[in-house]
Amino acid sequence: MNAATPALQLSGLRKSFGQMDIIRGVDLSVVEGERHAIIGPNGAGKSTLFHLVSGHLQPSAGSIRLRGEEIAGLAPQVINRRGLSRSFQVTNIFPRLSVWENVRCATLWALGYRYSFWRDVDKLKDANRRTEEILAEIDLLDRWRTPAGVLTYGEQRALEIGLTIAGNADVLLLDEPTAGMSHAETERVVKLIRKVSENRTLLMIEHDMHVVFDLADRISVLVYGEVIASDTPARIKANAAVQQAYLGTEAA
Ligand SMILES: Nc1ncnc2c1ncn2[C@@H]1O[C@H](COP(=O)(O)OP(=O)(O)OP(=O)(O)O)[C@@H](O)[C@H]1O
């Protein structure tokens, strides 16, 4: 891949459910290393777009390139192995397992262990080391023994981000990472997202405009299944079509 190849590039992407055209020809480029937010009104197709990129839905037409390689229509685990990892709005953790066990499961899986990992003690050590690194990165080292189910909501979302980065993916998709959070929890998760995306490419769906304008290097606005603008936060804020279609006075 040369420096000009986008981390992620969607071209002419379409998705229909029966007669309904939900994604209607999306072109979108996410530059390596940037934090890119997708915003848009309810029902615009943001989650559907994420499902297409992560392989959970098959496109009706168009192309999705990850570092220049076509991934449209591949299975989610194949896309994941190629370096794209996605978190879910619905929490993805095992509530009865400890924080440590949750992250270690994801790490073992990412290192290629399935059912015989206890046979290789050195590799197990690798997994333990990696688990510790991730817990440090998401600021949950001091909660390592705690069952994930009793963490605060904000901590659970942090853990979920930990599971998303466990596989060494360098393109992260975060789906509404601050949804349902208090102000303090949001601040903590924003800090965490800033940290984990420092050496990764980030594409996120986010409804909280403060978070979007605080974090994103670029913003794409999805309205009725089409990207009507893709630009820097300042230009998005000043874009008359975006104001009219979506932002209103909210971000003014
Ligand atoms: N499996 C499906 N079958 C039929 N219609 C669907 C399906 N999935 C989504 N849709 C429709 O596609 C449209 C876009 O939904 P989507 O969830 O992608 O929007 P969104 O922008 O993520 O909305 P929100 O911000 O409310 O989460 C909606 O009208 C929804 O009803």
From TrEMBL:
An annotated GO cellular component: plasma membrane
Per UniProt, residues of the ABC transporter domain are 8-249
What SMART domains is this protein classified in? AAA
The UniProt entry, under InterPro entries, shows: AAA+_ATPase, ABC_AA/LPS_Transport, ABC_transporter-like_ATP-bd, BCA_ABC_TP_C, P-loop_NTPase
Report if keyword ATP-binding is assigned: yes
Q: What Gene Ontology molecular function terms does this protein carry?
A: ATP binding; ATP hydrolysis activity
Sequence intervals crossing the membrane: none
Q: What are the alphabetically sorted keywords of the record? A: ATP-binding, Nucleotide-binding, Transport
Q: Name one Pfam family in it.
A: BCA_ABC_TP_C
**Record has Membrane as a keyword:** no
Stated name of the protein? Amino acid/amide ABC transporter ATP-binding protein 1, HAAT family
Q: Which organism is it from?
A: Mesorhizobium australicum
